[in-house]
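re: ur question from yesterday

yeah so i grabbed the chain u mentioned. its 1261 aa long if i counted rite. heres the sequnce exactly as i have it in my notes:
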Amino acid sequence: MLDDDLEFVDLFNNLDSISKRRDPRLVRLAVVASALKEVAGADPSPAKIFSVAIETLDGTLHQHHIDENVLLDAMSTQRALLDIIGLAVTGIAPGTLAATVSQSSRTLRGSIQACMSLDTQSSQSVLFTTRDGLDVTSSFLYSACRAISGLLRRLPNTVDNKTVAELFRSTILMLVSDTRSKVKTVAVRELCILLAMDSPKCHVVVHKETTAFVNRQMNTSLKVLADRKSTEDFIELLDFLRHALIFLDFSVVGGRIMKLLVALCEAASVSDDIHSDSIATAHLSKHTVPTINAILATVLAMLEHDAAAAKRERFCSFASRVLASLAQQQPTLIYRHGAADSEVLSSGRAIFGQVMLSSSQHLLHGNGEERKTAMMLLPLSIRHIVSLSKPLDTEDDDSVAFTLFPELSILFRQLEDNKRSAPQVHEKCVRDCLVAMEVVLQPSFEIIWGLSLKPLVLLLLQMDSHGEHVCRCMKRLVVLGAEMSQDGTHRIDVNGAISYLVQGCGLEILWKQIGLSEACHVIHEDEEKNAVAQNVLWLLQLMKSSETGRGETNLSLSFFQQTVLPLARFYDSQTAEGAGKSLKRKRTVVALWALFPSFCRCPTDLESVFPGLAPLLVRAMNDERYPELVAIISSGLKTLATGVRERKLGNGELVDGEEVSRLRREADLLEVVSEKLIPSLFKLVENIHAKEKGDVEQMEVEGSEERYVDKSHKVRSLTDAIASLSQLGPQHLIQRLFSKIVQRLLEASQADEDLSEQMCMLLTLAQSLVVSESLEHSSISLLFRCLKPLIRSDETKPRVQKRAYKVLAEICQRRVDFVRKSEQLNDTFQLLTSSLQTSQVSSRLMRIKCLTLVVDSLDNPNETEKKQILALIGETLLSLKDSNAKTRDAALKLLLSITEVQEDIVLVVTSIIAAAGSATSHMRSAAVIALSRIIFEYSKDENLLSLLPTLLKTVLVLSDDPSREVTKGFVCFVRVAVVVIPKEQIFPLLPDILQSLLGYHRGKDRFRSKIKIIIKKLVRMFDYETLMPVVPKSDSRLLTHMRKLSEREKRRRLARSLERPETLEYNEMVDSDEEDSDDGRTLFTMATKMTKRSRADSRNQRSSAHTSASATRNKAVLIKNDTEGLNLEVGKLTRKTYGASFSDESDSESLIQFDSSGRLVISEDKFADQSMTNADSTVAKFSKTESEANRKKGGQRKYQQKLGAQYKARGAGGDVKKKGQKYSPYAYVPLDGRNFSKKNREQAVKQMSDVVERGRKRQKR
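ran it thru and got these structure tokens back, copy pasting raw so excuse formatting
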């Protein structure tokens, strides 16, 4: 068939290229077009080609062919002519087409009639008709439909109606009812294109004839609708209307369909009554429900069509009629169990609901009256939708709910937009809708709660929160979640609905609506009956998580102070009861306080409430019974201070306005309150550090680190709160506190006793002030001078130095202006470089971060600064080998920063190369790793590219280094260099590269896979013929083996491609595990064919071969050395043969197997040939019986004899060397990873216990 995007000009301009296509139809098209071009002239116009093609087609229709091949060739030519006509007609003026329409109509109608008459001849229909729709007749009619449709689209309305009607009826309209699906599809598509024409519109006859055709078909079908054939014809008509009804007079045609739908629904709703009319007879038929489904699908397709927006007025009128008609029906009776197949009922329920939802959506987009109509009918529609979505008792099917409830959520959002236009109607609508939706809270809907609860919550959110129905529904939802067990199946669905409700209405509203305070106060009176009181901890945690994900909220601190805190005091007063209840109520107190950060996000009453609330917060943080409150309240204070500051800065440009005045008052309020709050937080930090020594001692006794971790978390939360409050606090307070910190820090550093914990506490507070960015320049300078002795000295504990580095890192990050000064920059460099020898291991990470921040702060460094930076290369390289992964990552960032600031990458590389010649292997490996990363990051730098060949030669010298870590770095560098260096530059270095890689024979198992990757990369870059001469002779077998594997894989792929059909099935393509490798065979052991997966597949094949009775078994021993010609091992291998001899190289290689260490396994079949002797037969039967007995015992048949039993002396306790024994006694146990599994571990231990007497040795000790 002709491509849809092929045009007339493209066809005649590209005849040569089209004639070379592989598709024979395109080739025929090019040949026919070339012949027409010769007849029409050198530069033919579309009109000329159209005229010649019509004449040629008319001439071929009068020829009668008896031979089938000649007839097939003639029809192919006619199809090509029709394609050309369809292309040419688009470039012809409508007047020209109107003048020749009589001849064109006669020829095109004749072609359709000739083809249809051919199809009726049974002798030839087998040859010219196939099931796939790609036969000659189908493709011919396909091309004819397109050509006729193109002609009709171009005909003006001035053309005689009779001529157009005759052409249209006998061609496209006739093919709409064709039995071939592809022909029918193209006919319907072309007809819809004609009907959808707007500017210009198609000929009026097309609309008239199509409407008449639909009416005739509908009248014929409705007369005997109970008949199976008439019902199927009517469903086919509906299938056509599904595409074309939108373009017809759907008010009339759709009205008839809806009238029939109502009659069918009423008949289907009746259980046993028998009526005399045809509709009642249809009710008794099993085709009633499918017919209803087909009508609903047609209406739904029209409602969801893209052209509906252009006909909104008529469309809304039709949608209101559909909605009113369906709202009066009883869908639960129509789709009751047993009325049809389960799939038909399920699809029908979904379509019924979709039609109602789509009609409601159209009406809600209409004018005022239409929106009111939709809101009046919506409650009844929702009642139908809920009843249709209810899972049946016979099956747990949620497909209907999965279809309807997401669309219902969209409808509810659309309903909320109409709240302002008609508030009273909207209020009554949502109230009635809530009554209908509240049914989904029943247990019978539990399997669809994940779908149905969200629309319910959306409906609740657009209602008055103080309404009685809303309160009742919210309480039912919360009680439903409280009554469920923690591991309930649908707990996630209910939690999600409550969380969505909290995010929508807010914590305060939900709290009030469900009466949480009142419910919790009756905990002693009726605790067992009060599910909310029992599971209040669950609800509080859910509220907290929901408010956290809500974003900016407008909660009031007064609610927290007057409602939440009294409830926390109530639970705190009840903690004196039993131990179990006391612990639960303490957790409830903490959960209530955990809501505090949510109220601090954007409080509405900060000015009036916070001054009185601040002292309560301080007292709560000092309560030793609830240490968790420190982190919770600190987080809330940080959120509060950060929010006030951001809102103030965001509205700083505004001068006037109530909002700006309120923000300024809030900032001033926090400034006043922080004068007392910040010192209290300082005191808390000091108290926590003062208790650390006792906690550490107790931790050592109890063996737990939880207290230390909790202490770190509390201190971090407090310092974050101090930093946030200090940004709003008064400057004089910050300076006074800072002065005290520095004074105490100096005193502690000069004290004779160990005050390390106090120094860490003071440094932590100083760090928080630095983070706040509220310190003056002089204070930062003073702090820097205080840090110098702590960084340079190693006499204090490592924690002190680490903390000092952290403070210095904050200074370098936050106060770049301070660090950039020349004098200060020199002091910072001098401090960091001179303290290298005294730096503790735990401080190395923060030290590297300080160096990175200092280097990054330099914009245009001078020569002196560049030298200072370059001097950091040595420390950076050593840090690349640090045991801490974070330190290695930080060192890598520092290396890249140095390279970036230095600007001369050659100088950096030269310095690193010098380190590669160091006396220690540690430094050499670090230098090679650094080089590999630099060439990877700066692979496009021209200066580096010119240096790479020389650099690679230098690094190849390290291939003989005995250190394993140097070898690792060397292999990584070569792997990166092979990718980065251009092919022409790497070719001269091939001998050195291969000699260095293949000459490595120490611990091949460690780096073999990486070396294999490099060699494969070189093979892809060049080829085997290029690499073979430069490979050492001792390792040439490796490349030979690789080449054999690749060639064998090519042959197998070629064989598979020849055996496989041209077109693959989709499932075959998706399920295929084939990849662009050697089909699972890698060079893991330099000469092996098997991987872990292929070994497993081979084991499965061997096990199936053992159990197959018809398998042919051969006995063979294959011997082949590994890459070193050593370590031969004898093993057993059973393989199913397929008639191939072992002399074939490809087949014999497939029998070779290697173990995990690369040693060859020599296979020997366990079973003998069927032509064995009687003795051998007896042995085989005994072996088979023994194996079956072992398998019955549990499959443990590996070691039937105790390990070393053949060497044990009978009369002594040790081993004995028997006569004729060449070697000393020993017991050899082959290593097998399966023995270490849980299943086989016990048996392996028992086996070794005969040799290693662990129990006796321990007893002797």
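noticed a couple things. The beta strands are 1129-1130, 1153-1154, 1160-1162. also The chain has a mean pLDDT of 77.
anyway ttyl
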